[in-house]
Specification:
Length: 274
């Protein structure tokens, strides 16, 4: 008898047990299409008590880290404790609006070339979060610089530019998606450069790195419109600086320093003309 769950969820907790518990209650309330387990990784919290988290449901396992590993390494620690063949990395500042786990799982497993799928994320007020993005390639900047998207059929424009350009009520293939709701097939991990999700960065742009490596491994990344999630998205004053530094590292590593300099020059020009 196979007792493996369909989906293993990994949730990072750091000083916000109330968010984590609310997130888990929304999972239990809405998830019916699939069997699942929940791995909660406590990233060496210094505030809040998470010790009773396992008492909420028998499918919950608490993993404690002796140090704050950051987002990517914390998730990789959780992944080590999963038994399902499909894993969902889920931010603790989220609430499911429907059976997003089951719907995303059904979508992901129906596509042989798909490695990753994300859900439709929205703010508490209902406004859409643009979690599906194109890869950071010069051709997309040039399209926007010269306003070429205005000459494209709507479907083609949405397919290429993603972000704010596409109808979030339909499924679309993306270059990369946010790590907020990041469901993937474990079977793709051996084909990634490190044999796991890259965890070079403590925080920010690790999801972009995952998207680049997923694409280069020959897997597709998708946005599933039917799966709906509220994301509270906390603010961090260091985010822009850290994200910018990490982006430069990624561009130099995967595209080369010359490509990055040209990319930034075009981006700056496009912003000045917008």
């Amino acid at each position: 008898m196979n007792n493996k769950p369909d989906v293993s969820l990994v949730i990072i907790n750091y000083n916000k047990p109330e968010y984590t518990k609310s997130c888990i209650h929304s999972i239990i309330k809405h998830t019916a299409l699939v069997s699942y387990e929940i791995i909660v990784v406590d990233n060496a919290s210094t505030q809040g008590d998470i010790s009773d988290i396992e008492s909420i449901d028998s499918r919950i396992k608490l993993v404690r880290s002796s140090e704050n590993l950051g987002f990517a390494k914390g998730n990789n620690l959780g992944i080590e404790h999963t038994s399902g063949e499909v894993v969902l990395l889920l931010n603790n500042d989220t609430l499911l609006l429907n059976d997003a786990v089951g719907l995303a799982y059904r979508f992901l497993t129906s596509k042989s070339n798909a490695g990753v799928v994300s859900a439709r994320l929205q703010y508490p007020d209902g406004n859409i979060q643009h979690c599906a993005q194109p890869l950071p390639e010069i051709k997309y900047l040039l399209i926007q610089l010269f306003r070429l998207q205005k000459l494209m059929p709507k479907a083609r424009r949405e397919e290429i530019l993603l972000s704010t350009f596409f109808d979030h009520n339909r499924d679309v293939k993306a270059g990369w998606v946010w790590g907020t709701f990041f469901m993937f097939k474990k079977s793709m991990l051996p084909f990634l450069p490190a044999g796991k999700l890259a965890d070079d960065f403590f925080m920010y742009n690790e999801d972009l790195q995952w998207g680049i490596e997923t694409a280069r491994a020959g897997y597709e990344t998708w946005f599933c419109a039917e799966a709906k999630v509220v994301h509270f998205e906390g603010q961090n004053t260091f985010k822009n600086e850290m994200a910018s530094q990490n982006f430069e590292i990624l561009m130099n590593r995967y595209y080369g320093s010359l490509y990055y300099r040209v990319y930034k020059a075009i981006e700056k020009l496009a912003h000045s003309l917008s």
